[in-house]
Every structure is written in C-alpha cells, then in structure tokens.
Amino acid sequence: MITCDIGFARKFIKDDEYLKARRKADMALDQLKNKTGPGSEWLGWRDLLADPNDAEIEEISSLGEEVREKADIFIVCGIGGSYLGAKAVIEALTPHFGSKGPEILFAGHHIGGKYLEELMAYLKEPKEDGSPKNIYVNVISKSGSTLETALSFRLLRELIEDLYGDDASEHIICTTSKEGGLLNKVIKEKGYRKFIIPDDVGGRYSVLTPVGLLPIAVAGIDVRTLLYGAVSAYNRYKENTEDILEYAALRNAIHETGKTIDVFATFEPELSSFGGWIQQLLGESEGKEGQGIFPTVATYSTDLHSLGQFIQQGQRSLMETFIIVEKPFSDLEVNELEGNDDELNYLAGKSFHEINTKAREGTIEAHSEGDVPIVKICLSALNAENIGELIYFFELLTGIFVYSLGVNPFNQPGVEDYKKAMYRLLGKH
Ligand code: PA5
Fold first, then answer.
1. What ipTM is given for this predicted complex?
2. Does the reported pTM lie above 0.90?
3. Which residue, judged by its Cα, is nearest atom 8 of ligand 1?
4. Catalytic positions, please?
C-alpha cells in the first residue's frame, strides 16, 4: 500500500496558485486517459496493466527459474531504461550480501574500458573448485543499436561463443523490439532466444515488460506479485487518482515558484537504486523545452553528511520527496554494553529501525524549518507487491506532471545531441 502526503510542501503554495496547478493536472490526466496528448502512441505501459499478459509472465518466471538454477553469473547488458528498472527492483528486494542464485552483474551501461576489461577477466576466472563459471547474458536494447550496449555485447558475445561454441545461443537471451534494429539482425543470424519490447512502451516505462521482468525473475523475485502489485495500483488509480493529482499539482506549482531541484531522499539504502530509476523516469520525461525540476537522489543518513548542509542552508532552490518504508524489515537492536564507554546505552533495547525513523523525523523537521517543501511517499512494507505499486505510482505521476507542463513525457530528443557529436568525433558514416 502506498500513500502520498504533500502536507509539508503545500504551505509553500498560495491557494490560487495551487488551484491553477490542480486544473492543469486534471487536464493532464484527461489527456492520458483519452490518449489525446503528445506522444500518446507510447501509452502501452498503461495498457499492459489493463490486460496483463499472463502467458508471458509464466514464460519469464520459468526461464528465470531455469537460469537461476543453472547460472553462476547473469549479466544484464543495457543502458538507461533498459537496465535501471531491473537494478532498482533487484536491489530493493534481494539481500545485500550472500544472495542465493546467480551473481547479477551489469554491462552495457557505460564505455569504461577498465570495468569491461576487469569484467571479462572475472568471467574467465574459474570457480574455487577449478570448474568454469556458467555464464548467461541478457542483452536489452529497444533500438538494438545503442553504442554502449552494442560494444559491451560484442565483447560478451565473443566470450560466450568461445566458451560454449554451438551451445552459445543457450546462454544469450535478447530483449528488443519486434522488428528492425541491428540486434534483430544478429538474433536472426545466430538464432538467439528473444523477448519482445512492445513498440508502444518507451525505455524508461518498460520495467514491467520483459526488459525488467526477466532479470528480476532471475534474481529470484516473484514477478507475478510485482506485476500484479502494479495492476492493483492501476485499478485503484482508475477509480481515484486524487493522491497523484495533488502531488502533480504541487510539483507544478513548486516549478512555477522557480524551484529547480527535487531531491528524492530515502533512509533505506535498499531504495537507493530505486531513486536512480525515478531520476531517469522523471528527468528524461520532464527536462525539455527549458522546463522541469531536476531530479536527484540522496540516501540518508549517509548523504546528510555530504548534501545535508546544502539542503538545510544552501540556495533555496529545492524541494524534497521522501520515500519511506513504514514496517521494519530488520529487528536488529542496540545491545547494552558494560561500562558504556561509547555512551550509547541510552539507545540500548531500541531497534535500528526505530533509530532510523527518529533520524528521518528529525531530518524532515529540520529541513522543513529550513524552508524545504517536503512530500512524503510511504510504503507500508518493502515487498514485491508494494514495489510494483510504487512503479506505477511514479509512471502515472510522471505522465500527469509532464503533461501539465505542456511537454511530451515520452520522447527524449535531447539525448540524440550527444550521440550525433560522439558519432561525428568517432568518424561514423
Ligand atoms: O528511456 C529511454 O527511452 C532511454 O533511456 C533508453 O532506455 C536508453 O537510451 C536505451 O535505449 P535502447 O533500449 O534502445 O538501447
């Protein structure tokens, strides 16, 4: 269950400004529902929740289990929307240390030679018992031509072909568009297994398609529960979108006041990468035509010791959105220590969750006294169902908020500019 409380931020906005923003949010929701806004051909992320593809979920779950049993290493090779969702969900829902099942590694998300060289060496290293590692690669690219992903895949493909010869196609799974793109050409030539990314779902809205679901299944997470968490959010918000409309209106009104930064803050290190997914979803959707609130991520209390000073007293150009988990997922308590030489016995018997909660409440109090508008998004517990719900919450918020700015939330024309310059410098014809 997700709740959204804009109370701490609302006092920064005058009533008439809020009402104006709220009217824009209402109109934006109509555009989404009626498919009348710009980019409405990319609204498939809603349709896939209206009519979930159970057969595909079963196929992904059983392949996930099979790979989980066989693989020592599973590499997710993709960039942007083609890996951030999987990383976010896997980090939120699997143990920090000693996870069972294959080690999940990422590639294709940058062009760092050192990383790739070390990755290739690590993959070739035998296991402790001297036997070779069993490696699976999932290359994910909707366009099938993104340079970062294609370069890493070239290295990985060569390695897999060297290692497994005729059986290489068993170890490579491709996730791409139905047709077109260079990756489809390779798939045809080599006979690799393939999952399809629907044409009407853009990269950053694709975590609930095979793009995210296959790696998430390999990580041992119940993808059906995750997806159906999003489906129940879809059905709930179909009936009542009030929470999201309020948040979208508030963000719009805050944007009008000239604030330029939204810090997505969490006190749960498990949700750090989820912040990264939100950052891409909002950033690539809203940052156009000179508009948008720059989304950034902070993991507290760690970042209270780096960004905290700025947030408390620096330029008043920011708002903060807290992602909160209410139910503790650890019972770890502080022990009583004989002698109390570290003077922490006043905390003895308290759980780390309780202490973390007080740190959060104290931070919210201090930041709101420091004139930071604060929104609180609460998850009742950290589980697959709630994460599915949270995914749809942010997708819908993004669609409504960005439409309320009068901008297309589903394209990313600015990303092409660096590519053009890079390809020119690389001499691509
Ligand atoms: O959200 C988006 O559309 C982008 O971030 C893409 O996911 C990213 O650029 C990767 O593209 P592709 O999947 O085509 O390799």
1. 0.98
2. yes
3. 80
4. 284, 419
